[in-house]
């Protein structure tokens, strides 16, 4: 099939992916109506991976082929109370048609 693009989801490459992950977090912040600055959002971005680091968190990045270098989106998870609740943030970018 021609014109198709595969996407791979894998753990973020740290520290190489931090700038792109911050950008995706900022895109997310632009989509929600809450004032994230009151929740320590800027400090959270500055301290990445922070709470999203293993073993209680994860930063996963979705990349497009052919070389799986273009970041399409990400998923950030943290466990708030062990085995009780997990919060996941998923941000996905639309493919550009340029």
Please characterize this protein's 3D structure.
The chain is an alpha+beta fold and 98 residues long. It is built from two helices and four strands, in the order βααβββ. Strands 1-2-3-4 form a four-stranded antiparallel sheet, with helices on one face. The two termini are 20 Å apart. The chain has one domain.
Number of domains: 1
The percentage helix is 10-25%
Low-pLDDT stretches are none
Main sheet properties: 4 strands, antiparallel
Query: Strand arrangement, largest sheet?
Result: 1-2-3-4
**SSE ordering:** EHHEEE
Gyration radius, rounded: 15 Å
Shape: globular
By DSSP, the count of extended strands is 4
Mean pLDDT: 80
Structural class: alpha+beta
How far the N terminus sits from the C terminus, by CA atoms, comes to 20 Å
Tally of contiguous helical segments: 2
Beta content = 25-35%
